[in-house]
């Protein structure tokens, strides 16, 4: 069974990033995939801020990452970078936590002007954590995710297509191995 861990670096469950998280969760077939989502903003704040590597919740989430075949990292883009809350969790991962894993970075940002934020800000940190198999980043402009009256979201087809192309690549690589 393939294990997928999604690390959601947003600061709320009600963001457009969560719409992408839900799309990723629905992409993988339930019968052959174990999916676990880490909502970073719901981790113990004191443990994040004080870099408490011994916190039981942090240790449990790190074990989930350790056991994963695929790690999907989601973040909104704020001030031309991924979120600080995501960085606080990445700092708590062991030095080589991403070795041997298929990684897919995904971001939601306000303009195309921040398209390279994942390439220049996030990917170097992932490489330091041992990631060598990082998929092509997916950057979605927040206007492509429409909040509906009932609180749910609709994602434009073009964005869905780009996301699914990269998810299929990652899924295929894991299936072959």
Please tell me about this protein's structure.
The chain has 177 residues and is of the alpha/beta class. The protein is 38% helix and 23% strand. The protein has helices at residues 16-27, 45-49, 56-67, 84-90, 117-128, 157-176; strands at residues 2-8, 33-39, 70-76, 102-109, 133-134, 138-141, 145-147, 153-155. The longest helix has 20 residues, at 157-176. It is globular and about 40 Å long. The protein starts with a strand and ends with a helix. The model has no long low-confidence stretch (mean pLDDT 94).
Gross morphology:
globular
Major sheet summary line: 6 strands, parallel
- Uncertain segments of ≥5 residues (pLDDT<50)? none
Work out the radius of gyration: 15 Å
Oligomer: single chain
* Average pLDDT number: 94
Structural class: alpha/beta
Proportion of beta-strand residues: 15-25%
Number of strands: 8
How far apart lie the N and C ends?
A: 12 Å
Count the helices. How many?
6
Helix content: 25-40%
Order of helices and strands: EHEHHEHEHEEEEH
Overview in brief:
Helices cover 38% and strands 23% of the residues. The chain has 177 residues and is α/β, with parallel strands linked by helices.
Keywords:
single chain; 177 residues; alpha/beta; two-stranded antiparallel ribbon; 6 helices; 8 strands; 38% helix; 23% strand; globular
